[in-house]
């Protein structure tokens, strides 16, 4: 649609491309291989949080639309054009989709930036992750084998892997298209029909993806997109008796509701990746404190802190604490928010007014509870929903800013004197999505890594992962896993076959 324009390099380039793109936004739902208005005719407004500008009125689906989409997905699954297609055949289509996404990556990145306020260079990084995810699962599907069970000569035992059926994927607004890829790539590769519900705050890239999926050759009903609110279309999908699986990334509260809906309906599988309050442990023996401080600041201020695995709790050994916090403050100064269309901006705008007010409310609460505000703390003047990097020191375990997920650029600093105290502080959380550990002592690294209750531990890095390792948490951070071959396993069922052989 806009890829004929030259590759954008400056803010002016991106602004010109944005103006061109706005005239051709797809705003209708994609149901049963057609772009259609919601059955009710209802729409929702999507707004650019960096400017307050209305971008579009997007179809707002509800239970009636969900019923139509689920029926189409079930027909597609049962007819077998996709579900029974050879793994190599599905691979070819998904690779075509990945190539189309690559060809349109600037357009897709721009849609996410306009929709939720993230810096365009960050959105481009998301596109690389989304495309890589699709290619990884496409290439994996014809390399996963079934099993032959060990038996005597009078029997043959087989373990077959089959697609689940209809998968409803509900994705968040903070990484709109990358989270979409993490959900739909393994589900489609395994042979399922997928209904995607993007966040009502960031639906535009998902709707553009639908047209690319059609162009790539996904059969009718195999991939559909239903924009709308969680309490309407999301709830309808979760309660549907003909949806076999719910895959969700979002808040812990909504995740708990979805599990209840699954129990109230057909006991569908539910895979959840929920909230986090991730600890980042810095021991005095780590080298190059300046570099570690840059990573610690990036771990919380990347994507405006609107990251489930954000390193929002910084635990620092007291012998280096004051020195290290000063270095974090210096690093944060270079991470100020700016125009999301400026490639030089590290942070962008908060996604909407509600999230903006939520973050400012936590900042006020941190001051009221007695934490020491070291930087930031006030919204920037002018248009747009911008909050600078905010650092609190002297945080205790009883303070809300040290316990609750804020989902914004707010860092809570704790001190510790011993390894045991560090582990206790790190694990004293309802969440267990990620943890960081900085040390040069390999014995300590192995001890602490094993003691941390977390789905993933980053040692001397923060979030330096690729598609080969699973992503997900424990405790109230959820139970599902994205990425790697383990996610392919989640989107399939095992069927045991026992054959008695006639001697």
What does this structure look like?
The protein is an alpha/beta fold. The chain folds into two domains: 32-274 and 478-495, Aldehyde Dehydrogenase, Chain A, domain 1; 279-466, Aldehyde Dehydrogenase, Chain A, domain 2. It contains 16 helices and 21 strands. The chain has helices at residues 11-22, 63-79, 87-103, 105-116, 120-140, 176-189, 204-216, 230-239, 252-264, 289-301, 321-333, 353-368, 400-403, 419-427, 442-451, 484-490, and strands spanning 29-31, 34-36, 43-47, 54-59, 147-149, 155-163, 166-170, 193-197, 223-225, 245-249, 269-273, 279-282, 313-317, 372-375, 390-393, 410-416, 431-432, 435-438, 457-459, 474-475, 492-500. Strands 14-15-16-13-12-18-19 form a seven-stranded mixed sheet, with helices on both faces. A five-stranded parallel sheet has the order 9-8-7-10-11, sandwiched between helices. Helix 4 crosses helix 5 (120-140). The longest helix is centred in the first third of the chain and has 21 residues, at 120-140. It starts with 10 loop residues before the first helix and ends with a strand. The model has no long low-confidence stretch (mean pLDDT 97).
Question: In terms of topology, how is this protein built?
Answer:
Elements: H1 11-22, E1 29-31, E2 34-36, E3 43-47, E4 54-59, H2 63-79, H3 87-103, H4 105-116, H5 120-140, E5 147-149, E6 155-163, E7 166-170, H6 176-189, E8 193-197, H7 204-216, E9 223-225, H8 230-239, E10 245-249, H9 252-264, E11 269-273, E12 279-282, H10 289-301, E13 313-317, H11 321-333, H12 353-368, E14 372-375, E15 390-393, H13 400-403, E16 410-416, H14 419-427, E17 431-432, E18 435-438, H15 442-451, E19 457-459, E20 474-475, H16 484-490, E21 492-500
